[in-house]
Amino acid sequence: MKDLYVNRRIIVAALIIIPAVILLARLFQIQVVETSYRISAENNVLRYVTQYPARGLIYDRNRKLLVFNQPAYDLMVIPGQVSKIDTGEFCKSLNITREYFRERMKAAASYSKRVPSIFMKQISSEIYAGFQEKLFMFPGFYVQTRTLRKYSKPIAAHVLGYVSEVDENVIKNNPYYKPGDYIGKTGIEEAYEAELRGKKGVKIFLVDVYGRVKGSYEEGRLDTAAVQGKDIVCTIDSDLQEYAETLMKNKSGSIVAIEPATGEILTLVSSPTYDPSLLVGRVRSENFAKLQADTTMPIFNRAIMASYPPGSTFKTVNGLIALQEKVISPSTIFGCNPGYLFVGCHIHESPLDLVGAIKNSCNAYFCQVFRRILENPAYKSVSDAYEQWRNYLLQFGIGRSLGSDLVNEKSGILPTVSFYDSRYGKGRWKALTVISLAIGQGEIGVSPLQMANMTAAIANRGFYYSPHIVRAIGDSMNVTRGLTEKHTIEIDTSNFEWIIKGMEEAVNGGTGATARIAAIDGITVCGKTGTAQNPHGKDHSIFIAFAPKEKPQIAIAVYVENAGFGATYAAPVARLLIEKYLKGTITNKSLEDYILNLNLMNGWREE
Question: If you ran DSSP here, which 8-state letter would residue 549 be given?
Answer without folding.
Answer: S
